[in-house]
Amino acid sequence: MKVLVVDDSKSIRQIEKRYLTGMGYEVLEAANGKEALQVLEDNPDIALILLDWHMPVMNGFEFLKAVRQDPRWNNVKIMMVTTENQEKCVIDAIMAGANEYLMKPFDQEMLESKIRWLMEEAL
Q1: Domain-wise residue ranges, the chain
Q2: Average pLDDT over residues 37-55
Q3: Edge-to-edge strand ranges of the sheet holding 26-30
Q4: Do the beta carbons of residue 37 and residue 65 sit within 8 Å?
Q5: Is 58 exposed, middle or buried (0-12, 13-18, 19+ CB in 10 A)?
Q6: How many CB atoms lie within 10 A of CB 26?
Q7: 71-to-44, 68, 83, 109 alpha-carbon distances in Å
Q8: pLDDT reading at 48 higher than 80
Q9: At what angle do helices 33-42 and 60-68 cross, to 10 degrees?
Q10: Measured CA angle at 26 (ends 37, 85), to 5 deg
């Protein structure tokens, strides 16, 4: 199964990639929402997106709204993984179509349990 990690921090992408690869996922990366849209276009079989909020070019919230407006990606699960912890932002993301929300910093166990729950829900 393919997962797209979208974060402007290369170190965060590497950490998430290491955890996800250990779980058996194939991991693709993008540094911002605009890059992520292209990766999604090129890989229509992506099942899960881990999405940061604060990025240059196109932020995570803009990307989330763009993905959720396209019916081709209705089945893609999206988890916000961000330092953004304002209650309004969390609610806005869920209302815009995010399936789950994980605050940074996180550890491997937190990330893996959220992903397992999210992907079991999809079955």
Answers
A1: 2-121
A2: 95
A3: 26-30, 2-6, 46-51, 77-82, 100-103
A4: no
A5: middle
A6: 14
A7: 12, 7, 28, 32
A8: yes
A9: 30
A10: 60
Whether the predicted model's global pTM rises above the 0.85 cut? yes
Mean pLDDT of all residues in 38-47: 95
The tokens for 113 are 């349990």
pLDDT digits (tens, 9 = 90+) for 2-31: 999 999 999 999 999 999 999 999 999 999
Select the CATH number that applies to the domain covering 2-121 from these four: 3.50.50.60, 3.40.50.2300, 3.20.20.190, 3.40.30.10. 3.40.50.2300
pLDDT of residue 18: 94
Contacts with 23 (C-beta within 8 Å, 6 or more apart), sequence order: 112, 115
Q: Residue 108 pLDDT > 60, yes or no?
A: yes
Helix, strand or coil, per DSSP, at residue 88: helix
